[in-house]
Amino acid sequence: MSESVLVFIALNAILAYSFYAVLVAGQLSLGQAGFAALGGFTAAALAPAPSEVGDLPALLVAVVIGMVVGALAAVVLGLPTMHLRGVFLAIATLGFAEAVRILLINAEWTGGANGMSVTKVVTPVIAWVCLALVAYWFWRQGPSSYGRALAAIREDELAARAMGIDVGRHRLSAFVTAGAVAGLYGVLWAYYVRLLAPEDFDFARAIDGLVMAVVGGSTVWLGPLLGGAFMTSVPEVLRSIGVEAGWIRPFISSALLLVVIIFLPGGLGSLLPRVGARAPADLAEGGEGLAPRSGRALPSPGETVVRVSGGNKDYGGVHAVRDVDLTIASGEVVGLIGPNGAGKTTLVNMISGLVPPSSGTFEVLGTTPGRTAVHKVAQAGVSRTFQHSKLFPRLSALENVLVGAHVVSRPTFLRRLLWLPGARRDESQVVVHAARCLERAGLGDRSREDAGSLSYGDQRRLEIARALAAEPSLLILDEPAAGMNHVEADALSRLIGSLAAEGLTILLIEHNVGMVMRTCDRIVVLNFGEVIAAGTPEEIVNDPAVVEAYLGGDDATPPGTETEEVR
Amino acid sequence: MQQLLNGLFLGSIYALFAIGFTLVFGILDRLNLAHPAVFAAAAFVGIELVAVGGLSIWVALPLVAVFGAFLGLVIERVAFRPLRGRPDAHFAGLIGSIGLGGMFIALLLWRYGPDTRRFPVEAFPSTAFDLGPARVTLLQVAILVISVLLMAGLTWLVARSRLGRAMRAVAENPRAATVLGLNVDRVTATTFALSSALGAVAGALFALNVNSAQLGMGTAIELKGLAVIIVGGMGSLPGALVGGLILGLAEVFAVQYVGSSWRDLVAFGLLFLLLVVRPQGLFGSRRVREV
């Protein structure tokens, strides 16, 4: 292999890493060519000439300038565009990159379309050292709490928010990482090709980077390296076996791209054995129950946890929730029942901050959901499950629960970079904690399976384990027993009972009325968005309004313990 | 006045190209990056039909549309259908269509070589009219009329016809559409065929308009097509029309008043501004996310 091929493999892999940096968080950005151009040109213009200070010092200064400029550009672009998703973000960032290119072509200091001549300093060794550092960064990032949070955002942004992850900040930091890595690419490119031209950083280059990242595998840290090596060496291999220039080479490259994407869904990286977090074999240490990790004490019994007064939610002309007053004291287990469409889920969505109320005051654990960001409400001690499972499907069961523990675990990424022993200790503590939560939910033997491949009932239980991992003060369960049989529902009842015994406050939405009657201290009945009854299970069973709402008749039987609603 | 008209003609081609892009995006939620390759391929095939086959341009254009539709079917079958149902279907389709588009371009290189091709001079009568101070060629009028007719036809098709109803049902919820007995595969394939047929006609008209066809012509218009569908609103057909015209006018006036080297900056500046202020575009509607 010639020197230039070696260097280009390293450079392309670094470019691919700048795409990987945002793809792991589920963002598609095509602005990297712009960051690279800004970084490369600024560094080439500002850094001292290699003839004056020596090759390596000049390159080091240039790399620092380039990465800082790339990161700054990412902040400037990221702040106004972080609310965009998917293709919109891709096209906005692409527009930015094109604008940068045209600015550079028209600027004086860049030499315009003719470009800028730069001394060639980069050698294969330098290029590969830089690549190794970048790859090391992402290797250490992956299994850290920061890396898991990014993966959670990729899999399900809303659920990530509800687990207490500050999605905006994480997305922006992923974006800035991409900017810095792209800046590094721009500088290395400048100091290798001798003549730096704005055309080097066009749309086609951005597409190349994206293709290499995806072909290599956008969820495996070695992926970009594999993708870069593959896409760079295919034309070289074709040349060496005697395929002439012309149409055959681009044809085969494109066809290989298609084949990889169709037959290797996870990219080349999926051929590597997967190493995920592993549950410890021995959970015995520390005894039963959930030893608090957060240091956050539960609110003292009887203290008000939730206060809703005059809560309203309108969707157009539909009043989903009307003038609801609800107070929940610490340690209570409150059931929320009512026919379909009664507004139960809307109410808990407002309590957990996911949906802003149309009017009314909400106070939950000292926060005001609707005005307080969702992740802040979660950090205050609210944790929930969703009516339709919102797990992180491509993460293992254990990893799902680890994400749930986000608010009670310490950040480990920077310490992992430096191999500080504290990081490993913290990580293994969180893993033990998560494994216990899985165990409690009855999923101890499922820890390594992907959440998306679990059975329906197991997915419901995994949601509960994930919510428990956050050590909540208020646990909201939205139809946890849906789709479970009697045996499973009974086990769930016992779990809720034991959690209540530990002092957790629980708000339970459930259609299995029998289960609600057995588990709850107090029941609130909603119908057409209004509270039609509230009281102890006995009072509710005998309330005529409830009977009316459930069965619609005059002389019907009350919602007895065996009446499960047909849905 | 002259500039206004020029912008209009250019814009109608952009719109015709973009409307194919946006049709697939609006209905299937996929960005088909092989679309630019169809655009280029159609220009070359159109030139061959007229120059070598000796056909009239009025026979060649429908044939080009059929050719485009065929490519659309191939794209759907090869680059999109195998990827359905994957968690990252969005990225995967994007990459798959880039690969297939690259193969198309490579095949063009094999058949036609790397040189620029042109329609023969006599392919289209060079009649021109004077409209007050401005001068309009018959070709430009034809381009405008064909583009507007095709777009109006497509809008009618999607809004009124049985096929259009099926397309909108698939857009809303593919699974429910299947349950209701719609052949989702066939509707999807038809959507791709229609989209590519429009892209192909746009390619042939573009080659007529600038009187040249190059292998890279698709890449050049790809960015503009993306800009147009964003400005108009993703998936909105009238949006693509208006967006195309706005972009055409903006470019022509930018060249006039700011200089040609800044032309593309105007387009992307507008695009960027609009995305930040109104991401759903001028005509798009924002989808409410469900919890």
From TrEMBL, chain A:
Location relative to the cell: Cell membrane
Protein name: Branched-chain amino acid ABC transporter
Assigned keywords, A-Z: ATP-binding, Cell membrane, Membrane, Nucleotide-binding, Transmembrane, Transmembrane helix, Transport
Membrane topology: Multi-pass membrane protein
PROSITE patterns recorded: ABC_TRANSPORTER_1, ABC_TRANSPORTER_2
Keyword match Transmembrane helix: yes
Organism of this sequence: Ornithinimicrobium pekingense
SMART domains named in the record: AAA
Organism domain of life: Bacteria
Gene3D superfamilies xref list: P-loop containing nucleotide triphosphate hydrolases
UniProtKB/TrEMBL annotation, chain B:
Bilayer topology annotation: Multi-pass membrane protein
Cell location: Cell membrane
Keyword field: Amino-acid transport, Cell inner membrane, Cell membrane, Membrane, Transmembrane, Transmembrane helix, Transport
Residues passing through the membrane, by range: 6-28, 57-79, 91-110, 138-159, 226-249, 261-277
UniProt similarity note: Belongs to the binding-protein-dependent transport system permease family. LivHM subfamily.
Protein's name according to its UniProt entry: Branched-chain amino acid ABC transporter permease
